[in-house]
Specification:
Number of helices: 17
Number of domains: 6
Shape: globular
CATH architecture of the largest domain: 3-Layer(aba) Sandwich
CATH superfamily of the largest domain: Peptidase S8/S53 domain
Distance between the termini: 72 Å
Radius of gyration: 30 Å
CATH topology of the largest domain: Rossmann fold
CATH class of the largest domain: Alpha Beta
């Protein structure tokens, strides 16, 4: 293929520099999505310690990749600002592009949360699929055959108008390069260019350029069964019957062409508000538009009547990406004189599975236009592509016609490349009869996700009409209750209405997503037992990191399932980001009996307790089949808000009623372990007033370690309800206990943790011990077991290596592939390891280098790492580039086990992929090594005296909770003669 040699040396750069930056997948028991597995590490290979001066020597304008541990709190952001670090763009999983041009090295070295940095190199700027896409259109195939590429060149987010002009001037000097157009998408200047493949390295050296990817290639995705999406009861259309038909709503349809003379559009005057682009008639676009808004009049055929038949239509041609772009299309549809708010797109770029410029354009538009919803057809087969992998939009797959509507007939598979749940919903899309573009009033059947998408777009317009006409909350039209809903709320309500499809195993799954929409289930119409409660919080009054907003509800009975849906409009991810999510919110639901449910933790089709908060999706759900009557608390938590404030929409349905929201207070940025006598450890408290008023000056940060009475620390207001305090420096042997409280005018004192509890912070120093180290320099070492194709070799490698040859290799050295003509399976097992208990704050980590070339299709050619019988990592396809992966094994402490690198093709298909290389394996155990300077000092005043004796005697023969100030010097949870003996041995000692 033309250009492979040029591209291959550049395209893997970002993966090489940021290897291992994978997100933990949402807990869905039917199996982890591609690229995600619980326990995967979050440390980038190539991030070097701050002491290394080379690491932050100015690169492209002083820009580097900078990694931090944990969330980006307001205090951490301020500390980086004070050190001279400018965060430019988030790249996912705690890694940012940062400008270090004004950095003060000494100040930066004090920031313990910064885990390392590396120069943002030219190799990181090129998408891995530049030069490798198989295009569909004749135009792009011809370009490729001629050795030419059409590219999107994204500049760094901090490049201003002057920098844009400099970049354009520099591009004009590159021979053979044509600048097609440029635009701003989500705060990033994007330039569309065309030229020979040799322009790629010349573009990558421009200091303003952040990422280069192939320009998208938009291709269409090929009687309206309106009752299925309204009620799923034959011939029951409750929304239409109530008068919800799309009146005063406008849908923007982007497609290949439209026959405006067809009776679906010409019968009602003014139906077509605008036609954007060169006029063209096509069957696909006419069929799609009529499914959304067609109206042949009262006597017309039902097959020509769209789901929102009283809505207006704005039509746009699919952008060619040489003289237009998706942002312009959407902005035009939303602009004056057109004013579409629901945007239906039955097309996409099937050639890329990456979060591309198309995906960014959708997310940026919805983030900047919060009242809009973009609806996108899922790819008709294979992994979710672009722009259907966008976060904020609603992605739709196709179900069969009744009576087979419980099965998916067309749609994407395997979730998104970074493991997010897509598609979102399903609607009928096979054998759909709608307007035939080659006729004046005829119809024809078509099948595909293209046909399902306008059905859901029509339903979105009806949901919008419901809120604007004031049907909420009474279920009757009340104009004074009307409001303009956000696109996130439309999405939340539609997803909340979706039903699990009996013909698709597991829930949620990669075929149906959250199921087939049944909109009437989430829109009460009058006196119904199933009710709806919504919250619609815009971004300008949204959450910060650490914010907690509580929404209590009363469940009246268990006759109706309880369904809670959280959606938020996330900022667009940076070009080339490893994970798309920028601002992470958590949905937490607490039952009357205290059971806690996290969003997207499902088993057997319903929410289950346990699991972990979702770190990938900006749509989370909790479904309870038979909810316990009583007060349920819904908590929305700002887990990691990296950019601005983050709004959200919440839709709750069931036999429910709303309750006043209490004020909340939360701890943010609290470390789990601090070093002895360390100064400057910052903790934040975040206050949200709910439906009450906060008493001025009542926010307090409480800390204790000397005795039962806490100290009240000084707080610095940071704005947006955030206050910052500094933990005291304490000696080894202490345990800090931290709590926060505030006073509301209705609730009184509100405290976290509740009651008299505290959050504990361990004071200790972790000492590392290597318990396994193997580089295969002498073949398989003692105790190692290998079967299948596993061998030790220095052959079959790419140019870059992680460690010196040789390495362990799953493949045939003679062919440098793992093809055997049948299913290939093999295990590489470590010697038996006995992992010790590491205690509070301790940890166990596995580090290894991995180079994977496989089919790169989810569910096949899988490289899994097991600790005993537990999967702890899934090695992704890297295109042969070595990456270092770091896996948390702390949960395996106290066990005897073998580590197992297991490769399985799953199928027996012929392949010519190189296979899996593994090297430089280390298991490191970190345990506390703190030395107590004053073992008998119970009250931490620096001496062992009568005061300590009195404190210990007061708790003698008591069971305590392990705190030093209670007299428990041994840490065994009780005060006994052993504790007296320690005190006696040190009595009279003056320590500090």
């Amino acid at each position: 293929m033309a250009g492979v040699s040029v591209v291959a040396c550049l395209s893997a750069g970002l993966w090489a520099a940021s290897a291992g930056l994978t997100q933990v997948a949402p807990v869905v028991p039917h199996g982890p999505p591609a690229g995600g597995a619980a326990g995967m590490a979050r440390l980038a290979t190539g991030l070097v310690p701050l002491e290394d001066r080379r690491a932050w020597r100015a690169g492209a304008g002083g820009r580097v990749l900078l990694g931090i541990d944990g969330a980006l709190t307001a205090s951490r952001r301020r500390a980086l600002d004070e050190a001279g670090v400018v965060l430019v763009q988030a790249m996912g999983d705690g890694v940012f592009i940062a400008d270090m041009g004004g950095v003060r090295r000494d100040a930066l070295a004090e920031l313990r949360f910064v885990r390392g940095i590396t120069r943002y190199s030219e190799a990181m700027k090129v998408s891995p699929d530049v030069g490798f896409r198989a295009y569909e259109t004749a135009e792009r195939r011809t370009l490729q055959e001629r050795g030419r590429e059409r590219l999107l060149v994204h500049l760094f987010a901090d490049v201003d108008a002057g920098g844009l002009a400099e970049a354009l001037d520099a591009m004009r000097t590159i021979g053979g390069l044509s600048i097609l157009h440029h635009t701003e998408v989500g705060g990033v200047q994007t330039i569309s260019v065309e030229g020979p493949e040799q322009i790629i390295p010349l573009l990558s050296v421009l200091e303003q350029v952040q990422y280069i990817e192939p320009a998208p290639e938009g291709v269409p995705r090929n009687a309206v069964v309106s009752w299925v999406v309204q009620s799923n009861v034959p011939d029951s259309r409750p929304l239409w019957d109530a008068g919800l038909t799309g009146l005063n709503q406008v849908i923007g349809v982007t497609d290949s062409g439209l026959n405006t003379a067809h009776c679906s559009f010409s019968t009602v005057p003014g139906k077509v508000i605008a036609y954007n682009g060169d006029f063209r008639v096509t069957n696909h676009g006419t069929h799609v538009a009529a499914t959304a808004v067609g109206n042949p009049g009262p006597s017309g055929s039902d097959s020509l009547r769209g789901h929102a038949f009283d809505a207006g239509l704005v039509f746009s041609r699919i952008p060619a990406f040489t003289n237009s772009n998706l942002t312009t299309v959407l902005e035009t549809q939303a602009g004056p004189g057109q004013e579409a708010t629901v945007h239906s797109n039955s097309w996409g770029d099937d050639n890329t599975k990456q979060y591309s410029g198309l995906s960014r354009a959708v997310d940026a538009f919805m983030h900047e236009h919060e009242e809009h919803l973009v609806v996108i057809a899922s790819v008709n087969g294979g992994q979710i592509a672009a722009p259907d992998n966008a976060k904020n939009s609603l992605t739709v797959s196709a179900a069969s016609l009744p009576p087979n509507q419980e099965s998916v007939c067309f749609g994407g598979r395997f979730f998104t490349q970074d493991g997010r749940i897509k598609p979102d919903v399903v609607a009928p899309g096979c054998g759909i009869r709608s307007a035939f573009g080659g006729s004046s009033c005829g119809d024809s059947p078509l099948s595909g996700t293209s046909m399902a998408t306008p059905a859901v777009s029509g339903m979105a317009a009806l949901v919008r009409q419901y809120f604007m006409e004031g049907w909420y909350p009474s279920g009757m039209p009340t104009p004074t209750d009307g409001f303009v809903p956000s696109g996130a709320l439309l999405k939340a309500v539609l997803v909340n209405s979706a039903q699990d499809m009996a013909g698709e195993p597991g829930y949620p799954n990669d075929r149906e997503g959250w199921g087939r929409v049944v909109v009437a289930d989430s829109l009460p119409l009058g006196d119904e037992s199933r009710r709806l409660i919504v919250q619609d919080v815009r971004n300008d009054v949204g959450l910060v990191t650490g914010s907690v907003i509580a929404h209590p509800i009363q469940v009246l009975n268990d006759a109706e399932p309880l369904k809670i849906t959280l959606a938020w409009t996330d900022p667009p991810a940076s070009p080339g980001a490893m994970t798309a999510l920028v601002n992470d919110l958590d949905l937490e639901v607490i039952a009357p009996n205290g059971d806690v449910y996290f969003g997207n933790v499902f088993g057997s089709g319903w929410s289950i307790t346990g699991g972990e908060p979702d770190r990938l999706n900006n749509l989370e759900q909790v479904h309870i089949q038979m909810p316990e009557p009583g007060v349920w608390m819904i908590r929305i938590i700002g887990a990691n808000v990296k950019q601005g404030l983050q709004g959200y929409a919440l839709a709750t349905t069931g036999a429910v009623s709303s309750l006043p929201a209490p004020a909340t207070v939360a701890l943010s940025g609290l470390p789990m372990i601090v070093a002895p006598e360390s100064e400057g450890e910052v903790v934040e408290i975040v206050v949200h007033p709910g439906d009450e008023e906060i008493v001025a000056g009542s926010a307090r940060l409480l800390v204790r370690y000397r005795g039962p009475n806490p100290e009240v620390l000084d707080l610095e207001p940071m704005g947006d309800g955030v206050y910052r305090g500094v933990l005291p420096a304490v000696v080894c042997g202490a345990t800090l206990e931290v709590a926060a409280e505030v006073i509301g005018n209705q609730s009184g004192v509100i405290r976290t943790p509740a009651g008299e509890q505290y959050v504990r912070v361990i004071v200790d120093v972790l000492e590392p011990t290597v318990v396994l180290e193997e580089d295969f320099s002498d073949g398989f070492g003692a105790g190692w077991l290998a079967d299948g194709l596993w061998n030790v070799t220095g052959a079959c490698n790419t140019e870059e290596i992680c460690e010196a040859a040789p390495w362990a290799y799953f493949g045939n050295v003679s062919t440098c592939t793992y093809n055997t003509g049948s299913r290939a399976v093999g295990s590489l097992q470590s010697p038996l390891l006995i992992l010790p208990l590491v205690g509070p704050g301790g940890r166990i980590t596995l580090e290894y280098c991995s180079s994977m070339e496989n089919e790169n299709t989810a569910g096949f050619d899988m490289g899994l790492v097991y600790a005993g019988a537990t999967v702890v990592d899934e090695a992704p396809h890297t295109g042969g580039v070595w990456e270092r992966r770091i896996v948390d094994l702390t949960s395996q402490q106290g066990r005897a086990l073998r580590l197992n690198w297991r490769f399985d093709t799953i199928d027996g298909q012929f392949n010519d992929f190189a296979g899996w290389r593994v090297d430089d394996i280390r298991v490191v155990v970190e345990r506390g090594a703190c030395v107590d300077p004053c073992p008998g000092d119970i009250n931490f005043d620096g001496r062992v005296d009568l005061n300590d004796f009195v404190r210990l005697a007061g708790h003698f023969q008591s069971v305590v909770d392990g705190m030093r100030w209670q007299g428990d010097l041994t840490g065994d949870g009780q005060v006994t003669l052993a504790d007296f003996q320690i005190l006696a041995n040190h009595f009279g000692q003056i320590c500090y």
